[in-house]
Amino acid sequence: MQQIQHLINGQSVAGSDYFETVNPATQEVLAEVASGGEAEVHAAVAAAKAAFPGWASTPAPERAKRIRQLGELIARHVPEIAQTETNDCGQVIAQTGKQLVPRAADNFHYFAEMCTRVDGHTYPTPTHLNYTLFHPVGVCALISPWNVPFMTATWKVAPCLAFGNTAVLKMSELSPLSAARLGELALEAGIPAGVLNLVHGYGKQAGEPLCAHPDVRAISFTGSTATGHRIVQTAGLKKFSMELGGKSPFVIFADADLDRALDAAVFMIFSNNGERCTAGSRILVQKSIYADFAQKFAERARRITVGDPLDEKTIVGPMISPAHLAKVRHYIELGPKEGATLLCGGLDRPSYAPELPERVRRGNYVWPTVFADVDNRMKIAQDEIFGPVACLIPFEDEADAIRIANDTQYGLSSYVWTENLGRAHRMAAAIEAGMCFVNSQNVRDLRQPFGGTKASGTGREGGTWSYEVFCEPKNVAVSLGGHHIPHWGV
Ligand SMILES: NC(=O)c1ccc[n+]([C@@H]2O[C@H](COP(=O)([O-])OP(=O)(O)OC[C@H]3O[C@@H](n4cnc5c(N)ncnc54)[C@H](O)[C@@H]3O)[C@@H](O)[C@H]2O)c1
Fold first, then answer.
1. How high is the ipTM of this complex?
2. Residue 369 belongs to what H/E stretch?
3. Which atom of ligand 1 is nearest to 384's Cα?
4. How much is the pTM?
């Protein structure tokens, strides 16, 4: 059995205890992974602290060279990393291999370039020259969830290291394998020992002491809103970037290009197995086109291939774990009890769906499920289900759409479909969310600020927005001489 160890100060460190990581499609145990606690966290933070002065004072072009090299190594190993990722978290190979792992390589290339261009601002006055310096923050705790684990980890590691910080990365206990490979590749790329450390383990045992550690200066966390609240309570005064849950509205007006809207709506709720923070999980459709849209949307959902995530043709793979499957099934059971109409999917394999291939019969599967006649006050419309479950909600007019879209604790992403230019801009301004995509699915430009409002989080990452998390701006005010300095006679 493969064993995965912690990575501390460039060394592979055995665990005092191990947990198993399991393939959600087959239930096969993939590896035993070291389970860290306070001792490993302390050692990793100490290593990161010791490595910080050297790395922070390494000239940016030299840091960039190694960061770029890490991107190149990832790009060279895409098929291998994508397969590891798909086996570990169930996300389909068509996405991990063609989009997510290549995107991870891009993260390193992008931030390698950017760290050589960190400049400042100048604010000249008649008496002073003010300018800003951007310093690295120090030791950062980077915490990733189980969905899209590799891409999410690199989205944090790349800017964190590029700007001169050192890091302790903790992956989810449900999908730690691809990041273990990242640690190896970082050393191969010439990133010095101690700059990137990895402690594996559970949230309570490893994540909590990491966030609470007094030598950790910043926390970049992606995960659930509940865990985000807990971290803020236990971590003390630190810089936070919190990328949390969502229940994003996907609003379609009667004048929208219906075919494109249908494609995008299907993609935004069923891609990544529906295990996606930016999922358009509440689909708001104007009443005059609601019945037609619902019928066409359900038709498309029925045609989605559910199956072996290693098969290039599969669109929806297994849920990450039996516990998560049980949660998704709970909401599928709840929908009709709350008064929603089940259009397709449901608790068992529907008659129109082919049998699962033999290899994945024991997987944590659920079929794309569509509920119509959903009222936004229902729990299926308010809670983040985080699975392939779509809620179709009718609305009357623009005001009604805005009211429903904003009637949620979350504010991560949003989608507006209309051919009316003025309305598109009004909606984009009115929806309470960190991102709004007009006549589009979620398209993530690396320069764009990514993040949410309300219970979806605080802070933004991406492009220069990553300075907020991983840099400390300092203002320097230099007197030009000659201005009056008060003389207090002392
Ligand atoms: N906004 C975004 O960018 C984004 C992206 C992906 C996922 N998410 C959210 O992540 C959630 C799914 O991921 P999950 O179930 O792994 O989330 P989770 O909150 O259960 O766990 C996330 C990570 O936090 C760790 N953790 C748990 N308790 C901790 C604690 N007390 N202190 C420190 N670390 C702790 C876990 O071990 C894991 O590594 C969903 O809510 C989803 O919307 C958000």
1. 0.97
2. strand 367-372
3. 41
4. 0.97
